[in-house]
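Journal club prep — side note

Before the paper discussion, L.F. wants everyone to see what a predicted structure for a comparable chain looks like in C-alpha cell form. Sequence:
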Amino acid sequence: MANSVQARKRARQADSHREANMALASRYRTFVKKVVKLIEQGDREQALQSYREAAPVIDSAVSRGLIHRNKAARQKSRLNARIKNLSS
C-alpha cells in the first residue's frame, strides 16, 4: 500500500492508465479480428473496407506504445497481402 501522497497519486494514475490501455488494446484486437473474419469468409470488398478502418487503429496502438511499430507494420502488411490474394 502506498504511504506517501506522491505514491498514492502514482497508484491512482497507474490504475487509470491501465484501464485506458486495456480499452485501446481491446479495440485494436477487435478491429484486427474483424478483418481476419471477413478474409476467412472470402468477402474481399468488406475485408478491404474493414482493413481501411483498422489501419488507423493499429497506428494509434503504436503511438500509445501498446505494440511495437514493426509489429504494426507486419500485421498491416500481412492483412493487406491476404486481402489481395482473395481476388486471385
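L.F.'s comment for the group: The longest helix spans residues 5-41. Keep this in mind when we get to the figures.
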